[in-house]
Design goal:
The chain is an all-alpha fold and 166 residues long. It contains nine helices and no strands.
Length: 166
C-alpha cells in the first residue's frame, strides 16, 4: 500500500480538506475606538415591543384604515380630491394617513398597477437593450423609469399633493 492509500484508510485525508464555510469575523483597524454607553435601566425595560404590543398596533392600524376607507368610499369625490374634502371637513387629520397608504388602496387597482408597472419596466428594458447603450447608463435609465411608474411612489406622491393643497 502506498502513502496516499494509508491516509485514506486512516481517515486523515478528511482532516486535510479545507472547510467550505468561511468563518465570519469582525476586525478592527489598528487605531479604532470602541465606545460603550450605559443605558438607563428604565429605558431598557421599555425600549422594545412585545409580540402582543405589535399585534395590538397592527389591529389598530387595520381599524384606522377601515375607518378611512369607509370615509373615502362615502366621499362624493375620488382620489386626492376625496382626501382634500375629508381633511378640509376635519373628518380626518393628515397625520392619520401616514403609514397606512397601502391599507387604503383598492386591491384590484393595486394588482392592475403592478401589472402595468411590470409591463412598462420590461418594455423599457427591451428598448434599452436594442439601443445597446452602456450597462451603467441603461441601468440608471431603467431605475429612473421604474421609479416614475412605481405604485408606492405614485400613491405617496398623490397623498403628498393632496396634503399640500390644504
Amino acid at each position: 500500500m502506498n502513502i496516499q492509500s494509508n491516509k485514506i484508510a486512516s481517515g486523515s485525508l478528511l482532516v486535510e480538506w479545507p472547510s467550505s464555510r468561511q468563518i465570519k469575523q469582525v476586525s478592527f483597524a489598528e487605531y479604532s475606538n470602541c465606545n460603550r454607553y450605559l443605558m438607563n435601566a428604565e429605558y431598557e425595560k421599555t425600549k422594545s415591543c412585545s409580540s402582543s404590543d405589535r399585534k395590538s398596533f397592527k389591529q389598530e392600524a387595520v381599524r384606522d384604515a377601515a375607518r378611512l376607507r369607509m370615509l373615502l368610499d362615502l366621499s362624493p369625490f375620488e382620489g386626492a380630491k376625496a382626501l382634500i374634502h375629508l381633511i378640509k371637513g376635519k373628518m380626518i387629520l393628515p397625520e392619520e394617513l401616514i403609514g397606512i397608504e397601502d391599507l387604503l388602496m383598492d386591491p384590484l387597482k393595486v394588482a392592475c398597477w403592478r401589472r402595468e408597472h411590470s409591463a412598462h419596466v420590461l418594455k423599457m428594458q427591451r428598448a434599452l437593450r436594442a439601443k445597446e447603450e452602456s450597462e451603467e447608463t441603461s441601468v440608471a435609465k431603467l431605475a429612473l423609469g421604474s421609479e416614475k411608474t412605481s405604485l408606492k411612489s405614485t400613491e405617496k406622491a398623490r397623498l403628498r399633493a393632496a396634503l399640500a393643497v390644504e
